[in-house]
Amino acid sequence: MKDEGKYTTIHYQNYLEIDALLSLQKNRSAALGENAHDETLFIIMHQAYELWFKQILTELASVCKLFREERVHEDNMNTVLLRLKRVSTIIELMIEQIKVMETMTPLDFLDFRDYLFPASGFQSMQFRMIEALLGLREDDRMTYHGKSYKIAFTEQQQQQLDEIEKGGSLFELVEGWLERTPFLQFEGFDFLSAYRAAVDRMVAREKEAINKSDYLTDRMKTMRTKMLGDSSTYFKHVLSRESHDELVGSGQGRLSYDATVAALLINLYRDKPILNIPFNLLAELTTIDALLTTWRYRHAQMVMRMIGNKIGTGGSSGHEYLSQTAEKHKIFRDLHNISSLLIPRSELPELPEGVARSLGFYYSSGRA
What we know:
This protein has 368 residues and is mostly helical. It is built from 18 helices and no strands.
């Protein structure tokens, strides 16, 4: 029969290729006559990271494939969300793994550090693929010795990174999905006009409360009013396409105007059943971004602990370079900034009955 061997037994040792796996920790210090005890830990830690990178790439590639459909079927959105949550959980584990590395003292590391030149974590192809697949653009990256980050890789690897960037990152795919969202097209309900009116009411009410306060000084009243903002400050770029385009043109933003408005609506009306998964999906993207920032920062702190202000083995500025990437290499900054546009639930424009009803159940674009 064709499936005769389908359920043949296999031993754990063979299935996981344990012998091959355990043969991959080759200490350079031992090979060069000075066996440094902690080099094995160092190798295993980084090999474990590379295995997790492989799994993250597997999840992100599958998510991008689902988003590349012109109309993302709603039935797939829960799958997308679960796979993004898996990515977040893996990154949380990567952060925890740093604690294991920190059981190594600076002197332990110095026993074998000289054997590592010029190898560097900067040369991790898989991590650069993750960044590119998520949507980190080359123009937004820290340079490597003033040159492209791709200089650390072979010509074939550079071509692979180029193909990822041209193929459409998760950022770009999510942007397109938000632009196509049907949630802004409701007959008889102009979301932005209703939102502007709600912002103006909220600001007027809070300004009145500030000015009537007996315990605030004039200086404090001025400061609090400024912090409050109005439709010409924080909210300006979402109420005016022209202002938003100027923001993007200056490099202060990246997400398109239509996608930003859609993300705002999803965040404001997140409690409506049909918007719950889209909201959680956007929240998961910001979580991934925040966790990667934390991982970079913790890595930078570990490097500072291990080598102080010394130059990294790959020739970078070590701790300084890593700490700068933690701030600069954020990808979904626009989604984080939606928080500055939120208003309290009590101030939300009331949805017309028909609109509220249409958001009150889950439907598929493939069904009537």
